[in-house]
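Hi V.,

You were right to ask for the full record rather than a summary. Here it is.
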Amino acid sequence: MWIDTHCHLDAPEFDPADAAAQRDAARALGVARCVVPAVERANWAVARTLAHRLGDAYALGIHPLYVPRAHDDDLDALDAALTEHRDDPRLVAVGEIGLDFFVPALTEPAMRERQTHFYRAQLRLARKHGLPVILHVRRSADALLKGLRELPTGGGIAHAFNGSVQQAQAFVDLGFALGFGGALTFEPARQLRRLASDLPLEALVLETDAPDIPPQWLYVPAAERAAGRAQGINHPRELPRIGAVLADLRGLPAEAVARATTANAQRVLPRLAALA
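Predicted structure:
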């Protein structure tokens, strides 16, 4: 079986009325579980309800892209929500949290400081509630690692990892698995494909980040989008095909990659194992 460790099934690109049928289509291809990470206070209940309705798992957190509109009392509300649902076996992590130093508006000094405040506060909540974390990593690996060394959580997933070998090893040493998805299906992504090929298989988990980061076969170039062709929407049903690309890169049967990445996901998000 496969586990999609990062899938925003609550995103507006997905029709709620069709969610069960769409999820069943992925399940028929072997995607036994999806993890739905919330991104802000307004969608915590939606993510939780959807995970329960579809038989999946969820995480609660405040995404760095949503920090500009977040309030400080959202952190108190997150603490309360984690307390309220602490016995929910489908609550598997604090996430999606992290730092984003790619979006220009988020790189201004004041916003970097605010992102860091929310990141560190959520690391403290993960420690308090005994949960791993799901990290947003975009041009921020070293800063994230600094926070983890000072406020270790015991592990989790570095989502959409695209750093160096040294950064990868640092995350692994702190108990993290590295999330790989549609980006590795692009042949020009040589560094990323080399990482996916060369890192220990025990360090890898698979994800779609649906509806975002479409694989190569769904991607529509900018020129074609400008001409009116819509971008393909990523979906959990694409995960086995992404996994097959990873298997090909590593010279392994797809079944071996499915088993290994599933075991890795259950190791770093321990509550997933109880749902199997």
